[in-house]
Each structure stands twice: as structure tokens, then as C-alpha cells.
Amino acid sequence: MQYTQGGPLLDITMELGELEEVHLPHFVCLGTNPSLRNEMKILHVEEHGVSLEEVHEVTRFHAKILHPKFSSASVVLKYIACWNVDVHCDVILYLAVKRSTVISRLYLLLRNSSQKEAVQEREKGQLSQGYSEFLLSSPNGSLKLNNWFALKNPLSTSINPEKIQLLPADTTPSCCKMIMGNTGVDIEMELIGDDKRIAWRDMLRTGAVLGAGGPAESSLTGSAEQQLRSIRTEFVKQVSRPVLDVLLDRLLQHTVINQEEMESVKVIAERAEKARDIIDMVLRKGTESCSRMINLLVELDPCLCSLLQINSVGVPT
């Protein structure tokens, strides 16, 4: 039977003790084909060879194995599934405003894979050149691995290449480069499959593009807790994984959360779930904690804060 990678490559080293169970993230969509649960295996890679292990339980985003045995050396786990499956995806846009032109690159990634890290490594040099990263909304449903999708923007002057392929997890994703005039109009984008159906659609507000590094033209009012509660849905939808990781460390540094709370959130693999846990945890702590989180978020991701229409706030004493 032929297998292909269905989740990220993980290195796990056990120094002391034993694990009761391990939950490995995957990006395979089981809703369209529940029988894929029976096709999933764990590829256990050790110094002297590889072996396939049975999966105890498969959930929407994780595969569970019980009582895993690891050697003292670094162990690589690769969760794999059958070829040509429906998968969960994310869409990331890197964008910069160059005088009268808006230049962007759009990536279609497998969720819960190492592709995002590969893209961030590729793009890290561009962030210092004025580019910003935007995690856009995910497709409403699953997409077929290896299929092609045409990027559409009614205001673009150039899209190259015109189509993007959803590539396997062990491949660095390709991208579509899009150029449009800086007209102040919101950026509307669609991905169209070969069957002519809209696979994904989103709109990037002009304020998120032009307001980076400065305050939003209009801001939310009310207490910090009210402001944070009002942006909860969009925060969970838009905030990127790198920002969440740094935000978590800074919340601990500013004693908004304690070590135990940080560790409980840090192990969450799914980005939206982690974002939801962080904002809900802070909301339960009251106005002062909410103020500190807003100020940290403004510092870490001014583009997102411009989109959410929040500015720095005073911290109650």
C-alpha cells in the first residue's frame, strides 16, 4: 500500500518515565471519508529502521497512540495516510505597499503540517523589507490534495502564476504573486477549482494593509474587557501562530498568567483553539489583564490591531 504524509514531522525524546498516550496532529479531512480512520498508521523512525504502528483513536485533528515506546535517542514520528485525500487547509498572504502598488504572495498550506514553518523561513527576509504576514480565513470545507486552484482578484493587474497547487506535506508550498494598484479599495480574493467552484473566498480590509505601524482611524470604545470581548471572534480567526507563541510568553512575563496556565495552552497544536484559550483565559481575569493583553497585541501585531480597531490602553492601577 502506498502512503503519503498526513501530518507534521515530530521529534520526541523521552529522558525519564513513560508516556500514557501521544496525540499527533493531522490535516486529513475525515468528514468526507470516515473510512480513512482505518487506513491511518504511525510511521515510527528510529536509528536502526522504521516501523508502522496502529492508531488507537482518530479525532478530527489528532491521531492517538497508547503507551508509546521511545528509545533514548531522538525519535521521529511521522503520521501518514493514503494518497489523494481531502485535507484541511490554511491560507497565508504576505503583502507590502510599495508607493502606488500593492505586492502580495498567497500561499495555500496544509493545516497541522510543517509547511507554514517552511514558508516563514522563505519569507523571513522579506519581513524586514516592509512585508506583513496575514493569516486569512480557512476554506469553508476540505480541499483535495494535489488539485489546482486559480487565484482571482478583480482589481489585480498581474497574477503569476495564475494557478496554485495544494502540495503534499513534505513539499514547500508554491505561491501566486499578485500585483494591484494602491487604490484604497478592500482586497477581494477567490480560489477557483478546476470544477469552476469557489473553493475559498476572503477580503482583506484596506485598514489592515495601510494602517500597519500606526493607530486605526477609528477605534473601539468601552473598557479593555469590553473591547477584548468584542474582538474575540476575529482575534481567533486572524491571529497568527508566531504571534500567539510570543504573546503567551509575554503574558507570563507580565504576570497576567502563571506558569501552569502557560504550559496548559502551549501544548495545544491547533492555532484557533490556542487563540481561543488564550483570550478566554485573559477575559476571566478582568480589566487590568485585558489591558495588558491589548497593549502586548498592539506591540506584537499592529496590522491585526488596525484591522480589529484597537489601540493601546491605560493599565488600571
List the helices and strands and how they pair.
Layout lengths: L3 E9 L8 E5 L15 E6 L2 E6 L2 E2 L3 E5 L8 E7 L4 E2 L1 E10 L2 E10 L4 H13 L4 E5 L6 E2 L3 E5 L3 E5 L2 E3 L9 E7 L5 E7 L4 E7 L1 H5 L13 H7 L1 H7 L2 H13 L5 H8 L4 H13 L3 H14 L1 H7 L9
Antiparallel strand pairs: 1-7, 2-6, 3-4, 3-7, 5-6, 8-12, 9-10, 9-11, 10-16, 13-15, 13-17, 14-16, 17-18
- Uncertain parts: 71-83, 211-218
The portion of residues forming beta strands comes to: 25-35%
Q: If helices are DSSP runs of H or I spanning 4 or more residues, what is the number of helices? A: 9
Please provide the ordered H/E string of secondary-structure elements.
Answer: EEEEEEEEEEHEEEEEEEEHHHHHHHH
The Cα radius of gyration reads 21 Å
Structural class: alpha+beta
CATH level-3 fold name of the largest domain: Immunoglobulin-like
N→C terminal distance: 64 Å
CATH-derived architecture of the largest domain? Sandwich
Q: How much helical structure, as a percent, in the residues?
A: 25-40%
Q: Please tell me the total number of domains.
A: 3
The largest beta-sheet arranges its strands as: 11-9-10-16-14
Biggest sheet descriptor:
5 strands, antiparallel
Q: How confident overall, as mean pLDDT?
A: 80
Top-tier CATH class of the largest domain: Mainly Beta
Shape: globular
Number of strands: 18
